[in-house]
Structure to design on (485 residues):
């Protein structure tokens, strides 16, 4: 009897993946040259699986801000804001995020994962019901589990499924918290937020929208899908991350609920963890300024997303959703997905391998994330390499 | 509940709904294990729950699934939810 015995099925599946080629979960880049190029040894790899949507990680203003943050406040924060104090950049970022959203308050967390833990497990308790979209991120599932609340799952992007579940709960007096995402990270599909809001209002429920993948990308000011759909004021809490469009590490929640600030003394994911480094917070503040100053970044990312989507669709690949900065390519089965992923990496293209049970509908997919920093030539290179590998696989299949 | 006509009827209905997940065509009994016998992962079980909830117009919080490994365990959860409805 061993502590690790329970992982036998996972260990076997993982060994099977490693037998196909490189370890998809331990890809190590020796150098990151730019938002879209990395080096593995002496080989240059075009990065199409980074979530670096606006390409701001190498923006000179963002890097200078990170350096200034480290120089002025030190490398780390060495503690939590509750016990060890808040540094002024964290407070300024909260004010700037709240102002950016036009909401009363924003709270900064150490990671996006912890932002969800704090909001869901901090606010919902055993007397409450949390209703989650079936395809919500693992951090939301984990947060629900931690909360002790009743967790009711509704069909992905299906307002009628949510409506039926809320109707069944209408007779009990518990608070209901509904959670959806904006842009979903695996298939690249988006939530029908306006319809969800109509349902949640009718049942007097709270709505939390995780804009981790949609902030910076959607909406006239890059605020996310809620802004793009014109429903921002109807969302009770917006959650987001700094580790995608905002080029840092951290997360946030923004809201105009009157007692929202209580989360700081109620959420263990805020209280019992070290706050982000000043370098990361200053980088995020600078990235937020760039998002405001450079609306062209959103034009670029959408232009690139459409180019890659059209290229892959035109080459005959089965894509999981309409064009968006996340493009899921359905590969059919895990073995083929892993083999294709390896072949792409060898051809100089890095994408993400996503296989069940971590994917919706047991889909095995190669997930591409597009950046505003990709050049049209890089997008065409990605399509060309996908096509080359597919042709090689088709020839091998035909030869069997 | 086990051994009653209502239980047998419920088991029959659940077996019917499980048909599409039962790729190897095993006979569905109370002892059928979702993972070991049907090779169904946790996400697919949760998707099956969505269908069962709508079929019987009941709420099955996923907290209740942590102890469910067999179809019989699940039938008991469904029966309790229907009784509470």
């Amino acid at each position: 009897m061993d502590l690790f015995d329970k992982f036998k099925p996972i260990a076997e599946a993982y060994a099977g993946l490693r037998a196909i080629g490189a370890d998809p979960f331990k890809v190590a880049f020796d150098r990151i040259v730019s938002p879209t190029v990395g080096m593995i040894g002496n080989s240059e790899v075009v990065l199409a699986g980074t979530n670096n949507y606006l390409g701001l990680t190498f923006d000179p203003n963002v890097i200078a801000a990170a350096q200034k943050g480290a120089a002025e406040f030190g490398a780390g924060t060495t503690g939590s804001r509750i016990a060890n104090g808040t540094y002024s950049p964290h407070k300024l970022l909260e004010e700037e995020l709240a102002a950016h959203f036009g909401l009363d308050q924003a709270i900064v967390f150490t990671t996006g994962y912890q932002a969800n833990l704090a909001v869901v497990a901090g606010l919902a308790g055993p007397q409450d019901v949390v209703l989650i979209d079936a395809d919500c991120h693992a951090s939301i599932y984990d947060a629900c589990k931690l909360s002790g609340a009743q967790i009711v799952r509704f069909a992905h992007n299906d307002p009628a499924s949510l409506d039926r579940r809320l109707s069944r709960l209408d007779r009990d007096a518990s608070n209901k918290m509904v959670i959806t995402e904006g842009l979903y990270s695996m298939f690249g599909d988006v939530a029908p937020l306006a319809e969800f809001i109509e349902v949640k209002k009718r049942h007097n429920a709270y709505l939390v929208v995780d804009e981790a993948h949609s902030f910076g990308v959607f909406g006239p000011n890059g605020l996310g899908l809620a802004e793009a759909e014109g429903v921002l004021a109807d969302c009770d809490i917006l959650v987001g991350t700094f580790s995608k469009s905002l080029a840092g590490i951290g997360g946030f929640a923004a809201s105009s609920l009157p007692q929202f600030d209580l989360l700081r003394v109620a959420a263990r994911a805020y209280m019992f963890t070290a706050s982000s480094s000043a370098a990361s917070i200053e980088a995020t503040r600078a990235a937020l300024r760039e998002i405001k100053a450079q609306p062209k970044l959103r034009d670029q990312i959408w232009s690139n997303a459409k180019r890659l989507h059209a290229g892959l669709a035109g080459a005959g690949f089965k894509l999981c959703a309409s064009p968006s900065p996340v493009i899921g390519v359905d590969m059919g089965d895990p073995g083929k997905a892993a083999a294709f992923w390896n072949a792409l990496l060898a051809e100089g293209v890095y994408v993400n391998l996503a296989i069940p049970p971590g994917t919706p509908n047991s889909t095995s997919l190669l997930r591409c994330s597009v950046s505003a920093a990709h050049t049209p030539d890089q997008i065409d290179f990605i399509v060309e390499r996908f096509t080359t590998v597919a042709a090689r696989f088709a020839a091998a299949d035909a030869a069997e | 509940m086990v051994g009653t006509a209502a239980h047998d009827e419920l088991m029959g209905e659940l077996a019917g709904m499980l048909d599409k997940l039962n790729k190897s065509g095993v006979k569905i009994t109370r002892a059928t294990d979702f993972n070991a016998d049907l090779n169904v992962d946790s996400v697919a079980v949760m998707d099956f729950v969505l269908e069962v909830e709508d079929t019987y117009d009941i709420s099955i919080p996923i907290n209740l699934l942590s102890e469910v490994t067999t179809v019989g365990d699940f039938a008991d959860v469904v029966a309790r939810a229907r009784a509470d409805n």
